[in-house]
């Protein structure tokens, strides 16, 4: 019996007692310069970060833009990095893909074959664009619902029949979640809306970017973004962890930042469980 | 003086008298089997199609899903194919990318560095997700406005203040078109809506998929999708051209299909110019 993706997220959360996802948005221009003495500096950086944080994290998320920008080599680095991550950790490919049915099938094949357990999907093409990513119950898809950036104001808040677009998306996600492997992306920069989406999709895993460098409030987003048991939310932090130090101690400092973030989140979850807001 | 992207589209249309875009959605499982005697069958197929059609087309469009699904090798094939296309032909990377600002910058860098003149962009993340693709006036971005697939019904028709989402997108595209390099993707499967979007964005180039295998009506979409001079529309056909024959004559048959399509479109354009519908 293989487990469906959402159950696997819950299992990992309980085992590691962590809602932290490290965003592996590795930028060759930002990694410590001493690494360039090695033959494959970006891969070495990724391996060191993973070694230093694997026992602390629920997931790793890879923003595909950063790897595509490295050319063909970027895809090789991505593949090798994924192979280096222990099996029990959730590996998310953040590519925001989404196309008409037969093309989405190709994207799903490409990313799941590469080794990802889940992907982010732009749902605006609708059902036939999304379903190919949800066919295999062991792999997950997080649909963009409300993004963390300023431009989220342009279309995502447009109201039809009194409901903003992001609520329409959350409702469709529930309909399309026939295999218990669908989740939502909701930015930490909108805690009120996060509460609203959680009230619609009470059980789905939420991938929550925007804490740290983007300035989303941690406390409010943990309170509002987790499910009623203080679980099923995945908080992504990239720059604050990856570039905590530019020296030889970068991996150790990344570990310290990850511990800090994990503890901050756990404290809020405990308060939520005790019902003391 | 380098020309902005939209002027370049118009120039190529006038030079080649064609609104045809061949969609290079090459699927290794669909190309003629005799090609597998060669070392690089997909590249050989692409080169043969380009040789047979280059003098007839406005543009080539590459659906990135098909190349990603081939793994790292797919990106190498893509790069070599792009290098093989004569400079005056428009090369469109159809990846429907779109992310928060700093990630969209990386995607733009990746795709324009690869050799594309323009890309398709999913605009749902809003302004900061779109603008990085429009910074260089010589490169273009076609924003997804109304897609050709059945799932376009799920979100793209939602009405806010009496206007469907696709009209909101068309209006924003005009605002964001400061460098005369922004276009729209509007599916041929919706001729009435195509007319509506054309009335909003009278001058922008439209990339129009969905004729051929997807069943969009050619006549209506040429009438409604071109600008008032019967120009500034790019009609994409993939499967009907690429797989016109599975034999040794595949390139010749692809040429014949391309000629047929170009002529069918030109006839409608001429009727439109004469005002005889």
Structure description:
Two copies of one chain form a homodimer. The first copy, chain A, is α/β, with parallel strands linked by helices and 277 residues long. Chain A contains twelve helices and ten strands. An eight-stranded parallel beta barrel of chain A has the order 1-2-3-4-5-8-9-10, surrounded by six helices. In chain A, strands 6-7 form a two-stranded antiparallel sheet. In chain A, strand 8 (182-186), helix 9 and strand 9 form a beta-alpha-beta unit. The longest helix of chain A is centred in the C-terminal third of the chain and has 25 residues, at 250-274. In chain A, 55% of the residues are buried.
Record keyword descriptors for this entry.
homodimer, 277 residues, alpha/beta, two-stranded antiparallel sheet, 45% helix
Question: SSE layout and pairings?
Answer:
2 copies of one chain form a homodimer.
Chain A: H1 5-16, E1 20-23, H2 41-53, E2 59-63, H3 64-68, H4 72-84, E3 90-97, H5 101-114, E4 118-121, H6 127-130, E5 140-146, H7 152-155, E6 159-160, E7 163-164, H8 165-176, E8 182-186, H9 191-200, E9 206-208, H10 218-225, E10 233-237, H11 239-242, H12 250-274
Parallel strand pairs in A: 1-2, 1-10, 2-3, 3-4, 4-5, 5-8, 8-9, 9-10
Antiparallel strand pairs in A: 6-7
């Amino acid at each position: 019996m293989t487990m469906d993706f959402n159950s696997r997220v819950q299992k990992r959360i309980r085992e590691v007692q962590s809602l932290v996802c490290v965003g592996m948005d590795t930028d060759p221009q930002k990694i410590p310069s001493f690494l360039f003495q090695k033959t494959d500096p970006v891969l070495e950086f990724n391996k060191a970060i993973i070694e230093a944080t694997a026992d602390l994290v629920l997931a790793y998320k890879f923003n595909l833009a950063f790897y595509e920008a490295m050319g063909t080599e970027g895809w090789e680095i991505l593949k090798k990095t994924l192979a280096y991550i222990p099996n029990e950790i959730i590996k998310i490919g953040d590519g925001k893909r989404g196309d008409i049915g037969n093309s989405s099938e190709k994207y799903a094949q490409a990313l799941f074959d590469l080794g990802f357990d889940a992907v982010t999907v732009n749902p605006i093409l609708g059902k036939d664009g999304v379903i190919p990513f949800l066919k295999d119950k062991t792999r997950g898809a997080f649909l963009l619902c409300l993004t963390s950036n300023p431009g989220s104001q342009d279309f995502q808040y447009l109201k039809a029949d009194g409901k903003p677009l992001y609520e329409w998306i959350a409702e469709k996600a529930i309909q399309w979640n026939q295999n218990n492997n669908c989740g939502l992306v909701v930015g930490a920069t909108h805690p009120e809306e996060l509460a609203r989406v959680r009230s619609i999709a009470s059980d789905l895993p939420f991938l929550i970017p925007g804490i740290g460098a983007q300035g989303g409030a941690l406390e409010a987003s943990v309170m509002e973004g987790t499910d009623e048991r203080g679980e099923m939310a995945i908080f992504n932090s990239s720059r604050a962890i990856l570039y905590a130090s530019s020296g030889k101690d970068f991996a150790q400092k990344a570990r310290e930042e990850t511990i800090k973030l994990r503890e901050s989140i756990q404290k809020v979850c405990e308060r939520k469980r005790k019902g003391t807001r």
